[in-house]
């Protein structure tokens, strides 16, 4: 599979100097063979590989994801993102012609109006009516520089229910295979369908593994971050400080806040399932107003960031030069993380959304 077909440019990494420039996007590049971009998930979910990384020593270990049960302590807090992915990729045609159209719903603005990406955008001026397999919608104006449009559906239509019946999963562009099922791109604990992408670190958990973790004494808690497509947008600025971070809506429920405060006061570990949980927790604590309100976070984490909440991170392997590579490097340490990635490539780990996982402590 070529890089062009995968929708991903894996640029060669420059040699790392003795003192890396943490503000340069090139610092976070690495070499990845295209065949290691996972196209389908493994089955069962918890049979994927799990790399462990001790961020203090740089020591790396190789296990299977279900071995996480042995790595967690009975007094740990395991915090996960309970969002659900909306099957919001809808296809249809212009009512006034025969042109095929695609609408990718991103975020609900109000009852029947959504933020969306539409194709072909230039042939769908504001006011164009489209038939999305029986659902009539009107394409509105752009509301951002990155092409996001407003799309308004007929009054009374339950858009989410329509998507469940007729929509497709908004898989990231590097997944070109269509062999996976919609449920493969959902966590087993997903609740409300308000996300345009999955919190992929959670995809590895099965009901059985979660039950065993609870039985061990680990407290499992939820937050919600509604994942947007901005998570896949590359950093185009050579100096990452000029990158405009996407905004995402999130909330930490009162019960989760209370448990985290208790854990931090007694020295127990808070383990984040994925970078979306990191952004939610660290984003809330960075505001200085820690409560259970809904809030928007644009927190951009890169080396030099001071973590206040998270003590351990379960995460997938991320795209070269992405904001998620920067976040993980800030948590695990740049040199240990990059060395671990090189070892993962050498040992044939599977990368990205349907790939293998890391546990960094």
Automatic annotation (TrEMBL):
The keyword Isomerase applies. Its main location: cytoplasm. Its EC number is 2.4.99.17. Keywords: Cytoplasm, Isomerase, Queuosine biosynthesis, S-adenosyl-L-methionine, Transferase. It is found in: Cytoplasm. GO terms for cellular component: cytoplasm. One of its GO terms (biological process) is tRNA queuosine(34) biosynthetic process. It catalyses: 7-aminomethyl-7-carbaguanosine(34) in tRNA + S-adenosyl-L-methionine = epoxyqueuosine(34) in tRNA + adenine + L-methionine + 2 H(+). It comes from the Bacteria. One of its GO terms (molecular function) is S-adenosylmethionine:tRNA ribosyltransferase-isomerase activity. Transfers and isomerizes the ribose moiety from AdoMet to the 7-aminomethyl group of 7-deazaguanine (preQ1-tRNA) to give epoxyqueuosine (oQ-tRNA). Monomer. This is S-adenosylmethionine:tRNA ribosyltransferase-isomerase. It comes from Jonquetella anthropi DSM 22815. The gene is queA.
